[in-house]
Amino acid sequence: MFELRALRRLTVGPVDLVAGRGSCLSIMGRSGSGKSLLLRMIADLDPHEGDAFLDGAACAQMPAPVWRRMVTYVPAESGWWDERVDAHFPDGTDFTTLLPSVGIAPEAAGWPVDRLSTGERQRLALLRALRPANRVLLLDEPTSGLDPASVQMAEEVLRQQLDRGVAILMVTHDPQQAARMASRHFELRDGMLKERPV
Amino acid sequence: MSAPLLGFWELAAAAVLVVINAALSLLLSLGFERALIIAAVRAAVQLLLVGLVLRTVFELGSPLLVGGIVLFMLVTASYEIASRQERRFAGFWGFGVGAGAATVATLIVATFALISLQPDPWFSPATVIPLVGIMLGTVMNGVSISLNAFNTGVVREHAVIDARLALGADRDIALKPLQRSAIRAGMIPIINSMSAAGIVTLPGMMTGQILAGMPPFEAAKYQILILFLLSAAAGFGALAATYVAVRRISDDRDRLRLDRLAQG
Using only C-alpha atoms, what is the Rg of chain B? Predict the structure, then answer.
């Protein structure tokens, strides 16, 4: 079980939330309402008040890198620290099945990152965040700007994560995607997170 | 060592060259005559004043006075380092990181140099002041270039650093590539001077000693000693500055803290 207690920074919060294993929650809200701020807080990437808990273990009680390997934030704009695509994945990654799962040719593993389109980067940034240690995924507009076929594939990848018990908090601007993926829906307005009726 | 003394007439002759240059600038409307004259006058006044001050200091031979001058040089160099920064840390740290790194690097290497040169007395102003001066020049380069490269690099690549942190890298791993290239940038000037020494340029100190009558081979040995000391000082300085910068630009929860840079 994943729990937020009185999380607060700048204009956002206090936010309280409980999410069960394998559940998907959608978060909507206008641009600038602090959705990314909220996800970054949960990943402990920004200083904040309050705390997050995974099965009762507080984020503040463990090293931040350990927390982030379990509670992983995937920003809307991905950063790449090496020239080649495969350098961003663990050694021994099998790209022949991994990359086609989001509609990208396996050869792309050997490409320079510069050669990727925006949409390809977005999908690869999602894939590189998926690790066995993941317990919660914090996704910031994971499929914005993708074509419908790619969106479908990315959602399928996410469903597999839900099936193995990973919880997902997903910021999205697409009500239909929220309806397809999430069981509970939230809106961030004036810094407060409110549950919306389905 | 008997140095041929330089009279004011020789200096005046050299000054004529500067004046000719300024006249050319005026004639061809290149527009640098004012800046050139002011800089030349400044150099003359500053250096003559320093010569006078040092003469007094050498005569007095007081360790307190030597310490005071070293401190003054350290503060001035630290101020220069801080003003070279495009993105400096907010508050005390904007001055403190560079000042601390420059001081540590200079003191370590100066202590080493004094132990090996064994001047008498150990605080001999004729040894300590020129030594600290030439070292601070290099340390200033090493620290200001590496610190500037690091901080501007962090601002430019914050998304990349954040990406690594978000995937569970700790701050040392996430900031290591930037730290490494910043140190390298800071070391380039001294590595250049060592590689080109004697081939492309005769280093200023060696030129001065030869002109002042020292045998060239002895001057070369002194220059080698100084270059080694300088490279060590630049290395320590760049290392210390970027190490502190890594700690300061991140916190103990392995977050990137761009809010700790001054706005600008």
Answer: 22
